[in-house]
């Protein structure tokens, strides 16, 4: 399964250099992104829309954090999609068809825990190096989709999918635990 025409495009985010080991204040990081990304994003859209090799941009998928993408969609009268809705549709689409390996780039909150489980305990993920470079992301995407390590991660993901499906079926471990929880709550409630 190859995607030879898949490409990443980047824009300047206006963020200062930082110590990769420092704790990052998300609110401080969101402010420069909100203030500085609209112009570079509009330039990228203009570049894409003027290229004879790329279809015209007709939809932008983003979330509230990337408000410049939302503003660009409004300015250019482009359909705007919410990534949360896309995530739900994506999850429905992959049900959960096969196990899916993941690429992890933990930043804050529960992402460190999710990374640890996906990459270390479950064996279904690959981590983005702290020194993020375009070629590193390209390598990870190709590796997880086509490489030997990606095939191993896919097999593990399929195993976990099977276990998860069994756990939530009637008589499965999660089903039994949830049923016991409800009975206890009703008994003491």
UniProtKB/TrEMBL annotation:
GO MF annotations in UniProt: quercetin 3-O-glucosyltransferase activity; quercetin 7-O-glucosyltransferase activity
UniProt keywords, alphabetically: Glycosyltransferase, Transferase
Organism domain of life: Eukaryota
Annotated Pfam families: UDPGT
Entry similarity comment: Belongs to the UDP-glycosyltransferase family.
Protein name (Swiss-Prot/TrEMBL): Uncharacterized protein
């Amino acid at each position: 399964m190859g995607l030879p025409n898949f490409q990443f495009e980047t824009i300047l985010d206006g963020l200062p250099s930082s110590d990769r080991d420092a704790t990052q204040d998300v609110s401080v990081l969101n402010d420069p992104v909100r203030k500085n990304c609209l112009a570079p994003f509009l330039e990228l859209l203009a570049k894409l829309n003027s290229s004879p090799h790329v279809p015209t941009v007709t939809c932008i998928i983003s979330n509230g954090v990337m408000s410049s993408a939302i503003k660009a969609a409004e300015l250019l009268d482009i359909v705007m999609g919410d990534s949360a809705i896309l995530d739900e549709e994506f999850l429905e689409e992959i049900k959960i068809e096969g196990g899916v390996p993941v690429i992890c780039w933990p930043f804050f909150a529960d992402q460190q825990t999710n990374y640890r489980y996906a990459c270390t305990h479950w064996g279904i993920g690959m981590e983005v190096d702290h020194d993020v470079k375009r070629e590193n992301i390209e390598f990870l995407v190709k590796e997880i989709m086509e490489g030997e390590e990606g095939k191993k991660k896919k097999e593990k993901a399929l195993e976990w999918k099977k276990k998860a499906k069994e756990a939530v079926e009637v008589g499965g471990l999660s089903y039994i635990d949830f049923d016991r929880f409800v009975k206890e709550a009703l008994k003491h409630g």
